[in-house]
Amino acid sequence: MQSYPSKLLEQAVNELAKLPGIGRKTALRMALHLLKRNVQEVESLGTAIIKMRNDIIYCRECRNISDQEVCVICASPKRDHALVCVVEDIRDVMAIENTGQFNGVYHVLGGIISPIEGIGPKDLHIDGLISRAATGTIGEIILALPTTIEGDTTNFYLYRKLTAFNLQVTTIARGVSVGDELEHTDEVTLGRSILNRTPYESGLKQK
Questions:
Q1: What is the pTM for the complete model shown?
Q2: Do residues 169 and 159 lie in contact, with contact meaning Cβ atoms separated by under 8 Å?
Q3: pLDDT per position in the chain (207 positions), as tens?
Q4: In what order do the strands lie in the sheet with 104-108?
Q5: Is domain 7-55 annotated with CATH 1.10.8.420?
């Protein structure tokens, strides 16, 4: 077991090692790096993290992270509010925005249906999407979820829920490889997949 010359260093390593993808060796390097920086820089980092955790809120419209009650995307009059792209999480919003190919708005589910992980429809922000669809102001909903079994299951569940409304349900083209998450797809491929989206019903007929 690693021996530390300082309990304070050990505590810092323990906390850093809780971050995803950070092992204890990497955590130790990070802690020692911070120890070499001047106090003001480390305090700025700490303040930024604390403010992020305490002050960031979720948009009341789409559940994207925001500094205000309504995020900048939902608040923009330049966006097509009749076009809604449904994504798994905030990283997908960032990935799609980076393509520059989408001018609609979003709905962040906060996950996908996964019985193995104990995640069901009630654990996701599906009711908010249904409420938006019920307003009658949406013309098309794009299902842009991961091309995995869980993603397909969620797509089908949402499609069944959305058939009650007078709107078009589409899905991104399969330029995104099966099993891939949107955040790991290159911008050109992702952009084309959105532009070349197809009616969800077409995919059902092919199966």
A1: 0.84
A2: yes
A3: 678 899 999 999 999 999 999 999 999 999 999 999 999 999 999 999 999 999 999 999 999 999 999 999 999 999 999 999 999 999 999 999 999 999 999 999 999 999 999 999 999 999 999 999 999 999 999 999 988 899 999 999 999 999 999 999 999 876 554 445 666 667 777 888 888 888 887 666 555
A4: 104-108, 80-87, 140-143, 168-171, 198-199
A5: yes
